[in-house]
């Protein structure tokens, strides 16, 4: 059995929520019917909601760009696994 290749896009600190919506409006028709690879988009945290809404039903997974190892606490600016999971994130880029 062949495994699907994973193609992940790390958007770094690019795109606003509206630019995220525009991206998906243009991108989704280009990949219609593409099923040979698993596609993951990792936008900035502020774009996660727009990415989930825009990619809904497309088969594209939405991931996060980073995660903090503690579950909670006074860690300004950090995001835990459970926080990301609660948004619907299925992937995260770590160790980069």
Any idea what the CATH superfamily is called?
A: Aldolase class I
- The global form is globular
Based on DSSP secondary structure assignment, what is the total number of beta strands? 4
Q: What count of helical segments does DSSP give?
A: 3
Instruction: Tell me the number of structural domains.
Output: 1
Strand order within the widest sheet?
1-2-3-4
- Report Rg: 14 Å
Which stretches are poorly predicted, pLDDT < 50 over at least 5 residues?
none
Note the quaternary state here: single chain
Helix coverage percent: 25-40%
Structural class from helices and strands? alpha/beta
CATH architecture: Alpha-Beta Barrel
- Main β-sheet: number of strands, strand sense, barrel status? 4 strands, parallel
Give the topology string: H per helix, E per strand.
EHEHEHE
What's the overall average pLDDT, rounded? 94
CATH fold annotation: TIM Barrel
The separation of the N and C termini measures: 30 Å
**CATH C-level name:** Alpha Beta
Task: Tell me what portion of residues adopts beta-strand conformation.
Answer: 15-25%
Topology at a glance:
Layout: E1 5-10, H1 17-30, E2 37-42, H2 48-55, E3 61-64, H3 81-87, E4 91-92
Helix pairs in contact: 1-2
Describe the structure.
Strands 1-2-3-4 form a 4-stranded parallel sheet, covered by helices on one side. The model has no long low-confidence stretch (mean pLDDT 94). By secondary structure, the protein is an alpha/beta fold. It contains 3 helices and 4 strands. It has a single domain (5-92), classed as Alpha-Beta Barrel (TIM Barrel), CATH 3.20.20.70. The chain is globular, with a radius of gyration of 14 Å. It is 30% helix and 19% strand. The chain has helices at 17-30, 48-55, 81-87, and strands spanning 5-10, 37-42, 61-64, 91-92. Helix 2 (48-55) links the parallel strand 2 (37-42) and strand 3 (61-64).
